[in-house]
Design a protein that fits this description.
Elements: H1 2-10, E1 17-21, E2 35-39, H2 42-46, H3 51-56, E3 61-63, H4 76-91, E4 96-101, H5 109-121, E5 124-127, H6 130-139, E6 145-147, E7 169-173, H7 176-183, H8 195-209, E8 213-217, H9 230-240, E9 245-246, H10 253-260, E10 265-268, H11 271-279, E11 284-286, H12 291-299, H13 313-325, H14 327-338, H15 341-360
Parallel strand pairs: 1-2, 3-4, 4-5, 5-6, 7-8, 7-10, 8-9, 10-11
Helix pairs in contact: 1-15, 4-5, 7-9, 8-13, 10-11
Protein name: Polysaccharide pyruvyl transferase family protein
InterPro entries: Polysacch_pyruvyl_Trfase
Pfam families: PS_pyruv_trans (PF04230)
Length: about 350
């Protein structure tokens, strides 16, 4: 929204936003005078006065697909919503811009067919990594496809200004999704590492061998979907390891980024926690569970991550511990890669200018 505001104001007008999404009561929502919120429910998808009426009231729709949800890996329910909102937009003859996001994978003919309609009718499609761009081009080779990067790199924050710490401060962003799956013996993402064992071993090694402060950072707070909630898992781990520090519940993403800016290393299994650390200049090791991690960071020329396939638990642990010792080197690698972020986001800004030119004259 901040990027959109900046481009709109540059062109001489003030935007008004309707934030359309499936809201989680535990997730913070930005409050602003130029913002109203439309909560999508199952009923609103079929009620003519619901989502359809909301979309028809807009001048354009900028659809970010929850960043990574325009794909089939999260199941039919989420894909149905993501596709329905796009198809309603084109049916209402409203300009649709797909903001930088992961696109695909799509393997099912049904998913591919529905995705093709949305991609073909959008005025612009921006992938946030080369793999997604390739997926979009393979489904819709004649579409207006471009390469940008994740908008969260531009998230404002207040750099940490506290006193110097006596010990290195390591943030571990624990994914409730991966942790609960591993506890249940489920491996829906085909991981070569055991996420619970990796997390537990990493905490012990950081506390005992490296003498570090270990900060447990929850990214997803979702009491209504406990199988995806990071916070309750962090609570359990904090009770198991009382020497760890449980990060507070943040009022919003900027506060989380500000907190992480004071850490010496972040190991994260949620991509936007990793983006927050990276864009604050903090050495970060993403623990990937899908191609979106490698695609996003690889597009920026940053290859420090534990991939979903190719590393067992012991190898992944050794890699992270080695990264702890190489923090200064990684910090420089991040600075080099961060210089590419602005050029990729400029692609998004250019497409927004075109969009606003279409609707505003």
């Amino acid at each position: 929204m901040q990027i959109v505001r900046e481009v709109a104001q540059e062109l001489g007008f003030e935007p008004h936003f309707t934030l359309i999404g499936m809201r989680d009561p535990a997730s913070p929502t930005e409050e602003a005078s130029d913002l109203q919120v439309f909560d999508v429910t199952s009923g609103s998808l079929i009620n003519p006065r619901g989502l359809w009426a909301c979309i028809r009231a807009q001048d354009c729709v900028i659809d970010i697909g929850a960043g990574d949800s325009f794909a089939e890996i999260y199941g039919a329910k989420r894909f149905t919503y993501l596709c329905t909102s796009k198809l309603m937009t084109v049916m209402a003859d409203k300009p649709l811009l797909l903001a930088p996001q992961t696109i695909g994978p799509f393997t099912s003919p049904l998913y591919k067919g529905l995705a093709r309609i949305a991609l073909n009718r959008a005025v612009s499609v921006l992938a946030r990594d080369r793999q997604s761009l390739s997926a979009a081009q393979s489904i819709c080779p004649g579409g207006c496809n471009g390469l940008a990067t994740d908008v969260a790199f531009a998230l404002p924050y207040a750099p940490w200004s506290g006193a110097a710490r006596a010990r290195p401060a390591i943030g571990i962003n624990v994914s409730g999704l991966l942790y609960r799956d591993a506890q249940a013996g489920v491996n829906r993402f085909g991981l070569d590492y055991d996420y619970v064992e990796l997390t537990q071993s990493l905490i012990r090694k950081m506390l005992d061998d490296k003498g570090a402060e270990v900060h447990l950072i929850a990214h997803v707070r979702s009491p209504e979907t406990p199988e995806d909630d990071d916070s309750t898992v962090c609570d359990e781990i904090a009770r198991q390891y009382p020497d760890t520090i449980k990060a507070p519940h943040f009022a919003g993403p900027s506060e989380a980024k500000s907190y992480m800016s004071g850490l010496d290393l972040v190991v994260g299994a949620r991509m936007h926690a990793c983006i927050g650390a990276f864009s604050a200049g903090v050495p970060v090791i993403p623990i990937a569970y899908s191609r979106k991690f490698d695609g996003l960071f690889g597009t920026l020329g940053y290859g420090r991550l534990v991939r979903a396939q190719g590393m067992g638990t012991d190898e992944a642990l050794g890699y992270i511990l080695g990264s702890f010792d190489a923090r200064a080197e990684i910090k420089q690698e991040i600075a080099d890669a961060a210089s590419r972020v602005d050029s990729f986001l400029s692609v998004y800004r250019a497409e927004l200018r075109k969009l606003f030119g279409m609707i505003g004259g």
